[in-house]
């Protein structure tokens, strides 16, 4: 009996028996690689996108829209919370947005249309949180805004807390959108040379 008990203890204490004990998962490597954001978000930062890649994305968007599907492409560039996306539109935007904390810059890649900027929203509604933008409100109506005719190469800078929308699309409008988080300190505090 003593022999059986010692044999059982030897088996339990053996390295082979120890291999059956689950080990804790390793801690993640920092900095954390963001991969749990919106659909099709890259898991790793992206610092370069070629003109060929952008042309392929526009072709993919054309094909998706022709097949009755929305285009949902991942960011063109993504670094430390900053992102550049390609927006593809063949109809005007459904509402007017205000990013309360972030500025946004648009560069028109192709197509023509109009963007409406400024004024103040009528009956704004808070939008669902988005990990890549600060708080956003939107509305279907704006008063006192300006409208700009836009085409390839045009740029529009939208300050934080400013209403903006794509208000007209002439067939197709493809834009770069860059969210620009507010600096930690006001730019006016930085001395000029």
From TrEMBL:
Keywords, alphabetical: Signal
Lyase listed as a keyword: no
Signal peptide: 1-18
Region (Disordered): 18-44
Transcription keyword on record: no
SUPFAM superfamilies in the cross-refs: RmlC-like cupins
Entry protein name: Cupin domain-containing protein
Organism: Novosphingobium umbonatum
Taxonomic lineage of the native organism: Bacteria, Pseudomonadati, Pseudomonadota, Alphaproteobacteria, Sphingomonadales
């Amino acid at each position: 009996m003593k022999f059986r008990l010692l044999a059982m203890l030897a088996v339990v204490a053996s390295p082979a028996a120890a291999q059956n004990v689950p080990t804790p998962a390793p801690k993640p490597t920092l900095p954390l690689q963001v991969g749990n954001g919106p659909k099709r978000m890259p898991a790793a930062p992206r610092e370069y996108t070629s003109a060929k890649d952008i042309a392929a994305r526009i072709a993919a968007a054309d094909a998706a829209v022709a097949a009755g599907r929305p285009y949902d492409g991942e960011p063109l560039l993504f670094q430390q919370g900053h992102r550049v996306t390609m927006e593809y539109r063949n109809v005007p935007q459904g509402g007017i947005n205000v990013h309360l904390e972030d500025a946004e810059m648009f560069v028109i890649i192709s197509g023509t249309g109009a963007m409406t900027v400024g004024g103040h929203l009528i009956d704004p509604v808070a939008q669902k949180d988005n990990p890549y933008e600060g708080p956003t409100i939107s509305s279907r109506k704006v008063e006192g805004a300006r409208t700009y005719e836009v085409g390839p190469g045009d740029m529009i800078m939208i300050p934080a807390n400013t209403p903006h929308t794509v208000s007209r699309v002439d067939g197709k409008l493809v834009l770069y959108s860059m969210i620009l988080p507010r600096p930690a300190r006001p730019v006016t505090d930085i001395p000029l040379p």
